[in-house]
Amino acid sequence: MVRYNDGKIELIKGDITKIEADAIVNAANTSLLGGGGVDGAIHRAGGKEILDACVAIRNKQGNCKTGEAVITTAGKLPAKFVIHTVGPVWNGGKKKEEQLLQNCYINSLQLAIDNHVKTIAFPNISTGIYRFPKDKAASLAIASVKYFLKNHESIDKVIFVCFDDESFDLYQQILKFEE
Ligand code: AR6
Questions:
Q1: Which of 35, 64, 81, 137, CA to CA, is 20 to 30 A from 72?
Q2: CA-CA distance, 130 to 90, in Å (whole number)?
Q3: Ligand 1 centroid to residue 39 C-alpha, Å
Q4: Cβ < 6 A, ligand 1 pocket
């Protein structure tokens, strides 16, 4: 684990389902009904309560649009909440993918504040099944989070949880360079 930004940003390599933050973020899809990757891991480890809460949200508002976020219980996970956000599928960069990915981070953080969340952990949204280039995604994630933290005092800590070495190294390089 490495700390940056006066301790407000933490970088961890590992499994987000194990993180004891107020909220962990899920890289979901528009259906909110689960899938592979980190979404599958979160639903598996958190249990049926999370899916039930997602179904209830769907029944109210329908699909969750790309770039938007919703919040549920974290079921059996050590976190209190799961914030489900839908990253963009990478299509070469001409379909507003970069803006949509930034929206995921900003909307998740805003929802966190609305729910009095002080510590929040993010996976590397869109960089798996949705094929967003890892280097671009890391830069956008860090820039969005830093911008948000500058303007919102109530979040104590943002944890970036990288699952693979490549993303961990990219985050480390960018965060170190900007210290
Ligand atoms: N903890 C932290 N990060 C993880 C974990 C984990 N347990 N497992 C995977 N990752 P992906 P996407 C990393 O594919 O690209 C699902 O089917 C993974 O290495 O989970 O946004 C959804 O339902 C990668 O760096 O999400 C959607 O249909 C990152 O999490 C679709 O995949 C994101 O990879 C979303 O695709």
A1: 137
A2: 6
A3: 6
A4: 15-17, 27-29, 35-39, 41, 87, 123-130, 161, 163-164, 167
Q: Tell me which of 101, 120, 134, 163 to substitute to probe ligand 1's pocket, judged by most ligand atoms within 8 Å of the beta carbon.
A: 163
- Pairing relation of β-strands 119-122 and 157-162? parallel
> Cα separations (Å) of 178 from 3, 146, 156?
12, 11, 19
CB 45 within 8 A of CB 76: yes
Helices vs strands, H then E, count in the chain: 5, 7
Structure tokens at 122: 């993010």
In which residue are the tokens 């958190």 written?
A: 46
**pTM summary value:** 0.98
Distances (CA, A) of 84 to 60, 65, 144, 145: 16, 11, 17, 17
Domains and CATH numbers, the chain: 2-177 (3.40.220.10)
The pLDDT of residue 6 is 86
